[in-house]
Amino acid sequence: MEARFKSRLYYKYLLSYVLILSVPLLVIGLFVYNHFLQTLKSEVIDNNLNMLSQVKEIVDVKFNELEKIAYQISRNPELTPYMATRNAVKGMNTIKELRNYTAGNSFAHEIFLHYRKQPYLYSSISTYTASNFIDAIYRYEHWTQEEFERAIDSLNGPALRPAEYVGGSDGERLITYMVPIPLRDEVPYGTVMFMIKESSITNLIRNILRDYGGNTVIFDRSGQQVTYMEGEHGFETGKLVEMIDRTRERGSTTVGIGGNDYFISHIQSSETGWVYVTKVEKSRVMASVARIKLFALAGLAATILFGGLAIFILMHINYKPIRRLKQLTEALTGRKPVGPREDELESIGLAVRQMSENTKELGLEIMKSRPALKQYMLMNLLKGRIRHIEEFNSSGRSCGIGFSGNWFHAAVLLIDPGGAAGPKPVKEAIIASLEAACRASGRIEGYGLDSMDGNRFLFIFGMADPDGTALSQLLRSFRDTAGTEWACPVTIGLGTGYSGIGDIGKSYLEASTAADYRLIKGKDKVIDFREVAQTEHHGYSDKELIELELYLKQGNMDKIKLCLDAVVRKIQHPDTSLFTARSICYDLIHTIIRPVFELNLPAGTDKLPDVWSLLRFETVDELADMVKEASVDICGIIQNNKESRNFALKDQLIAYMERHYADHDFSLQTMAEAFSLSAPYVSRYFKDQAGMTVSQYLNTIRIGAAKNMLENGEDNLSDLIGRIGYVNTSSFIRKFKETEGMTPGEYRRMYCQGQQRDAK
């Protein structure tokens, strides 16, 4: 513990975490915090303006309804000046009609109708003379009879009197709204006068603003107060109009009144020209903003508190793997710190550098062995010991060889050793040059190997296209280049293309036969086997070979000998050409080899005949004797291992997985190579014997090991997955949950709870 807190790296981490915590907080405090509050303040102000806009719209609608009533009165045939003033009966009918309009509109307290040059006013209740109306019935506080009569007789457009006390109105303030009829006519014949209780408008304002707590006032076009609603702090309207910008339809400003700040908001109606103004104390409107400020500060404080706690925990979590890695590198390399100022990362870096140097040295050794490995891989391919192209590509990747196409040709190159450079340097240069020409073509993959037979070497080509024209053109072009650059003739025999690596040996036989035709065709030529194939009659029945393979798998040696005798007689027939004999021998060899690979028998393939045997044996009898000897061995192995091997191999594979499940580089291919088997066979065999795939069984072992570690107290997930062979945490958690139905953490907690219950 003491050494850890003396570590310079520990304090570097501490400082970095503090900066990670501090920088976001400063950004929030200096920018985001203020920006958020300004935005919230704007939202509050806009909300207040929107409520004021609702008041304006509703009042506009109400007054528009009054104008519609005036229009309907002007269009009512029963209320024309002639009909209304014709006689007393018609006058009573006028009162009745006005009563209908009054009953249909709750906003207007009373409706009056006056015809110009007539002495009467009609209402929904009675008929009044102008003098009696203004002096006895409705006694306006600031409206004389003369002004009243002039207004109702000469009005050309809608006019409004602000709210005022009127005698006979039960002590309520009334707003008087007058509309000439017909409205917007050059010569109106009458006036409709509406009396509106001030409370009708203030109640609308109160229903919308509710607990707004401010003062609201309405001004007409000339700035004269129409009505107002007093708030919590009294109401002063004297200078209120001067505080707003009348040039703007809506807006809000802050003013100081009596030592307090107030929001003054206004909105102007485009319909009536009225201005609606509210005054409310700023502290009341911003109360919600103040609460959010408090919550934000509390949140920042909580972030600092929990951030500090997180720093403390993360310091211990993050430093522990670094310390373990340092200890591991010191244990692996045997290196110790050279001084007290060397921190963990420097120590690990020096150890990694040392391991890197060792890896480079190992890489140089591998590079030196690449030609030999390449020669070995290509030789096995020609001998038919590799059954799948994927197996070849996987093994050949380390030496830079592999095929992506599925059509293969073999070629035999013969050079004249008389060149000045000598045979070996010329052969190496020719192989490298032809491989480079294949890569440059972009369509052909080709790799060469030395046959160790004087001036003869071999090439294997792979293509995606079955047409061999491009390959023939490439070889002819290369032949010309070789003659010019190395001054030695090159004769090339090219075999037929086959769509599988199992027939590469046959293509090699054809290439060898084509090369032998240089005696007839001449040197320094590309001889395609297809050009000389008409001289070779190699058609034959493969019935005996099919029966031979069947008897081999059955282990029936008597039948095998009969089949071999029939094949030898066919080869020794006088009409059989040399190439036909070679082809039959090639198919015979592959018939013997195929069961060895398919049944994965433990016989040594080095003892079996291959395509090279055709060049070593002098007579067919020698080859037949070897095939008979190999057949006896294969039959014995089949009979001895047919029952026991399945169970033994299964147990060996399981034991291998239990030993190596924690290796990060474990794969089906590496396990198959450990048992000298092919990966496809191991996969198929294990699933048949165990009832599950190799990856499924491996996952079962790893999950079981993880459960044991969790039950024994291991709670560091990164350490745990490294010890069971996983490299990705999310992949392990997903696999664990698929298998156990819960995450590793949930499993750990469930197990601990079970232990506690058992203890109780």
From TrEMBL:
Keywords: Cell membrane, DNA-binding, Membrane, Transcription, Transcription regulation, Transmembrane, Transmembrane helix
TM helices/strands, residue ranges: 14-33, 294-317
Gene Ontology molecular function: DNA-binding transcription factor activity; sequence-specific DNA binding
Membrane association type: Multi-pass membrane protein
Domain of life where this protein originates: Bacteria
GO CC annotations, alphabetized: plasma membrane
Name the record gives this protein: AraC family transcriptional regulator
UniProt-listed InterPro entries: CdaR_GGDEF, dCache_1, Homeodomain-like_sf, HTH_AraC
Predominant location category: membrane
Residues in coiled coil: none
Record Pfam families: dCache_1 (PF02743), GGDEF_2 (PF17853), HTH_18 (PF12833)
PANTHER family linked to this entry: ARAC-FAMILY TRANSCRIPTIONAL REGULATOR, HTH-TYPE TRANSCRIPTIONAL REGULATOR EXSA
SUPFAM superfamilies: Homeodomain-like
PROSITE patterns (UniProt xref): HTH_ARAC_FAMILY_2 (PS01124)
HTH araC/xylS-type domain boundaries: 651-750
Species this protein is from: Paenibacillus oceani
